[in-house]
Amino acid sequence: MDQRRNSGSRTGAMRLARGVLAEGGLQALGARLVAHFAQAGFVAADVPVLQPAEPFLELSGEDIRRRLFVTSDEAGEELCLRPEFTIPAALAYLKSGVVGRRADLAFLGPVFRHRPGESGEFWQLSAESLGRSDREAADADLLAEVHGAVTRETGAEGLSIRVGDLALFARLIETLNLSPVLARRLSLALGEGRIEALLDGATSGAKPEARGLARYSGVLDALKDADPREAKAFVKDLLSLAGISAVGGRTAEDIASRFLDRAREDAQALGPEQKAVLRRFLAISGEPDQVSRDVRALADEAGLDLSEVLDRFDLRTGFLEARGLPLALMQASAGFARNLDYYSGFVFELRCAGAERPVAAGGRYDRLFERLGHAVPAIGAALWLERFGGGDAA
Question: Does the reported pTM lie above 0.70?
Answer without folding.
Answer: yes
